[in-house]
């Protein structure tokens, strides 16, 4: 399964932070909707697929994931913050989406069943730095499952380096409990999957990393 080293994000601090942000979270993430859409597209969902939405927050990805997998598929959203997942539950109720299941638990402790055909990590830096969370997800994927991770990262040297990282730093400090591996947030996942296809976004301050699971 790969090395077990863990960047040790502070789960309690993350929970407290997101409880405070739940009411305004949708507004905060609005600017990143194009990145979310691109990430979901790269999952290449088909009707009947079972997809995991790890750190699903208020459920902003659920509509697109449900549209891709259809009523014959299943979307499993995992979120440890009760205030956030209650908003996600309301989204499901309003959307009348069949086959959407929400789990209020840390990803490393979630009972995911399986196997799943795809997994999405959208703006979930702390989860990507948690070895136990990644291992729990990978245990519940079928061979060939598609995995996509997105989020913020340090921009590489270039003309906009200072400007972009001047945005990334406060955004990261506001959103994550560990800045470990912000140069390559997908590194721990890549250790388990092998080389990932990585695309820069947000002028180098964001990324989309994707791969297939080949145990």
Structure description:
The N and C termini lie close together (8 Å). α5 (82-95) links the parallel β2 and β3. The protein has helices at 11-21, 25-29, 33-43, 62-69, 82-95, 125-128, 131-138, 161-175, 187-193; strands spanning 50-54, 74-79, 100-104, 116-122, 141-152, 197-201, 206-212. The protein has 9 helices and 7 strands, in the order αααβαβαββααβααββ. By secondary structure, the chain is α/β, with parallel strands linked by helices. The protein has one domain (11-212): Vaccinia Virus protein VP39 (Rossmann fold), CATH 3.40.50. The radius of gyration is 16 Å and the shape is globular. Strands 3-2-1-4-5-7-6 form a 7-stranded mixed beta sheet.
List keywords for this structure.
215 residues; alpha/beta; Rossmann fold; 7-stranded mixed beta sheet; 7 strands; globular
Describe how the helices and strands are arranged:
Layout: H1 11-21, H2 25-29, H3 33-43, E1 50-54, H4 62-69, E2 74-79, H5 82-95, E3 100-104, E4 116-122, H6 125-128, H7 131-138, E5 141-152, H8 161-175, H9 187-193, E6 197-201, E7 206-212
Parallel strand pairs: 1-2, 1-4, 2-3, 4-5
Antiparallel strand pairs: 5-7, 6-7
Helical stretch tally: 9
Question: What's the main sheet like?
Answer: 7 strands, mixed
Question: Which class of secondary structure composition applies to the elements?
Answer: alpha/beta
Our count of domains comes out at 1
Q: What proportion of the residues form beta strands (DSSP E)?
A: 15-25%
Computed Rg:
16 Å
Q: Which blocks of ≥5 consecutive residues have pLDDT under 50? A: 1-6
The strand count comes to 7
CATH class: Alpha Beta
- CATH architectural grouping: 3-Layer(aba) Sandwich
- Provide the CATH topology: Rossmann fold
- Mean pLDDT, nearest integer? 89
Classified in CATH, the superfamily is Vaccinia Virus protein VP39
Strand arrangement, major sheet:
3-2-1-4-5-7-6
Helix percent band:
25-40%
End-to-end Cα distance, whole Å, is 8 Å
Overall, the morphology is globular
SSE sequence, one letter per element? HHHEHEHEEHHEHHEE
């Amino acid at each position: 399964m790969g090395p077990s080293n863990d960047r040790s994000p502070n789960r309690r601090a993350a929970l407290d932070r997101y409880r405070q942000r739940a009411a305004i979270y949708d507004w905060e993430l609005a600017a990143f909707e194009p990145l979310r859409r691109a990430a979901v597209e790269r999952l290449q969902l088909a009707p009947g697929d079972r997809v995991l939405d790890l750190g699903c927050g208020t459920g902003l990805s659920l509509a697109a994931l449900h549209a891709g997998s259809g009523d014959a598929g299943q979307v499993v959203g995992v979120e440890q913050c009760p205030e956030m997942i209650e908003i996600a539950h309301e989204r499901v109720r309003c959307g009348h989406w069949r086959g959407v299941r929400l789990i209020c638990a840390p990803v490393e402790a979630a009972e995911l069943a399986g196997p799943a055909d795809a997994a999405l990590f959208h703006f979930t830096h702390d989860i990507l730095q948690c070895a136990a969370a990644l291992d729990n997800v990978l245990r519940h994927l079928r061979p060939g499952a598609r995995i996509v991770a997105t989020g913020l990262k340090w921009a590489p040297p270039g003309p906009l380096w200072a400007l972009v990282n001047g945005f990334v730093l406060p955004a990261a400090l506001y959103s994550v409990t560990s800045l470990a591996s912000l140069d390559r947030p997908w590194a721990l996942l890549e250790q388990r999957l092998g080389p990932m296809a990585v695309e820069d976004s947000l002028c180098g301050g964001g990324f989309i990393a994707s791969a297939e699971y080949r145990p």
